Amino acid sequence: MPYQFKDYKKSKILTNHLNMGGKSPDGKEINVTNLYFMRDGKPWIGVMGEYHFVRDSRDHWYRELCKMRAGGITVAATYLFWIYHEEAEGDFDFTGDRDIRQFILDAQRAGLDVFIRIGPWVHGECRNGGFPDWLMHKPYRLRDNNSEYMEKVHIWYEKIYEQIQGLFYKDGGNIIGIQFENELADNAAHLLALKKLALNIGFQAPIYTVTGWNSAYGAKIPVDDVVPVFGAYPEEPWAQSIKKLPLSTHYVFNKSRNDTAIGADLLTDVDEDGWRLPYERYPFATCELGGGIQITHHRRPLINGMDIYALSLVKLGSGNNLVGYYMYKGGTNKIGRMSTLNESKATGYPNDYSIRSYDFQAPISEYGEIREQYRLLNMLHMFVNDFGDILAPMEAVTAKTEIIADDLTSLRYCMRTNENSGFIFVNHYQRSAKLEDIHNVVIDTGKVQFPPIDICGDVSFILPFYMNLSGNMLEYATAQPLCQTGHTYFFAAVNKIAAEYKFTGNDILNQKTESILKINGIQIITLSWDRAKYARKIFDTLYIGDHCDLYECDGKICSVQEGDFAYDRWNGSEFEHHIVNQDFIQADAKFEPVHEPFVSPYADELNIGGGRKRIWKKVTVSNHTGFIEIQGQYDVAQIYADGELIADNFYYGRPWRVPAKLLYGKECYLVMSEMRNDYYREF
């Protein structure tokens, strides 16, 4: 049967209507319209990944940023946690792992722009939302325009500026965006005051943002001075229930930007005066598409790659023009001089989070390993990075019949178009449910009718129509566009759908995977889906890892996985095969049961809920390379090395992997507390 769309109504483009935009010393420029961002006069879609520098070692920053760049990220976003830098009033620390300037320089070296989220309040599952304890004890109202609070914020902003001056886009640096506050839904005057304060100090960037979510009416913001950014997560670990939640609406296409579930533990509806956020003045931008999800003690969802990929694809199809993930790189909380720095019920929040781990089940794990969503998302990112100037001005047009999350039989599809050409987005995946296979699907855009296809299993994909490939008009393809290198275009074959290409003036062309299709001076190569997951476009060259995850670091092609690896490199006419040999000996771990060797200084975490039994083991590793796996089920596990808590984990159904180098050469103990049936689980 034909699947059609609602009528397309072209929007009027607004320019120079926001207090936004900026130029670099060499004449480059970033601007904002009401539909999309612009870079050097062309529509542009940034791909932004959150990476908290203070939740990692500075020795890792550059390497991990290189992994992000290889995964298609173009902008690194990071929070400035006030408590990390001024734990004691007046005693500022921007050294070592707290060196924001070095992090920004490392990002520039890796080829990334930077978006700084300077608060003052940021949340991020940090103690007090990032506020220092001493600030919490002040007698004046916080997150407010009173002079006492704003004086402290002034000092905080000045200290940040001292560290990063000269690194802004206007200076030739890579800071292109600044976010003020976070999840402040009802105080536009304060948000504007924060922006004015920052500008007076010297902060300047082409893009200024605030989070826009709250009720369906949207957060109250200074309308012309910031762009509201939104988010969507595959689960809600902050929800207080320990039961399965209703099916998420984020796996069906709609043009609504506002996820009222984010921050539902902290926000309330504030629409009494009839406020409505004027969405039509801003491009659809996200800062918190879930790259994974953090585990709370009472909710422990198990995230897989399709949970994240399908969600991002749906938002892209629904009009998203700034693709921002939270988190993209997991991290490890530090322990402060005066307290732990994690959010918990002890600090007044409704949720308990782990003391050290902020892994977030992110595309790049707490310890730098790669998860499946990294590979899948990169397929979207290559597409956006190479064809974003075409996609960005295209508007979302939804299916003729609206689909809801509980409908497991109907086709979920959407289109982005400029009236003459466009892309079809299909999502056949719903977290926590199984969709029925759909056969003989004929998609009719009004400009072209695709041939019948079967949509089976867990698949989500993009199909182009009337796409100009170096002067050749591709009327349609039944394969997903990936990227372009010179006059070679790469596509990915979708599961159980034959790759078919129809060019104007030519017969329908069918292509087998890995073969080269030549037509009028261009080449098309269709990769299998599995091969495409390991494709990386690194500085205009396409590499495909042999089931390994490649990245470039200091001019050298590396693999995330340790040991020998192999890859193919496209040289313009064929793939060259390369084999790299590396010395690697996987560490062995010995676990020896022992009586409690000492009283845990963080026993409260092991005993959430009270009265839990504990098992201790002495851990010895043979060398410093590779990962050790901790098997078995438990509630909370902690590892101490030479008496220091170095790692912890709330069990959520997967083995806990810890780098051997954290334990090697130290006296190490593992303690695990008793698991009970007092939390939501998916295993």
Layout of secondary structure:
Blueprint: E1 2-3, E2 22-23, E3 29-32, E4 37-39, E5 42-44, E6 46-51, H1 58-70, E7 75-79, H2 82-85, H3 100-109, E8 113-117, H4 133-136, H5 147-164, E9 175-179, H6 188-201, E10 207-211, E11 227-232, E12 286-290, E13 299-300, H7 305-317, E14 322-329, E15 331-332, E16 357-358, H8 372-391, E17 395-398, E18 413-417, E19 422-428, E20 438-443, E21 453-455, E22 459-469, E23 472-477, E24 480-485, E25 488-492, E26 500-503, E27 508-510, E28 516-519, E29 522-527, H9 529-533, E30 535-538, E31 541-545, E32 550-553, E33 556-559, E34 565-570, E35 575-580, E36 589-594, H10 603-606, E37 614-621, E38 627-630, E39 636-641, E40 644-650, E41 656-659, E42 668-673, E43 680-681
Parallel strand pairs: 1-20, 6-7, 6-14, 7-8, 8-9, 9-10, 10-11, 11-12, 12-14, 13-43, 25-29
Antiparallel strand pairs: 2-3, 3-4, 4-5, 15-16, 17-18, 18-19, 19-22, 20-21, 22-23, 23-26, 24-25, 26-27, 28-29, 30-31, 31-34, 32-33, 34-35, 36-37, 37-42, 38-41, 39-40, 39-42
In short, what is this structure?
With 683 residues, the chain is of the alpha/beta class. The chain contains ten helices and 43 strands.
Task: Explain the overall architecture.
- The protein has 683 residues and is α/β, with parallel strands linked by helices.
- The protein contains ten helices and 43 strands.
- An eight-stranded parallel beta barrel has the order 6-7-8-9-10-11-12-14, surrounded by four helices.
- Helix 1 packs parallel to helix 3, helix 5 (147-164) crosses helix 6 (188-201) and helix 7 packs parallel to helix 8.
- The model has no long low-confidence stretch (mean pLDDT 96).
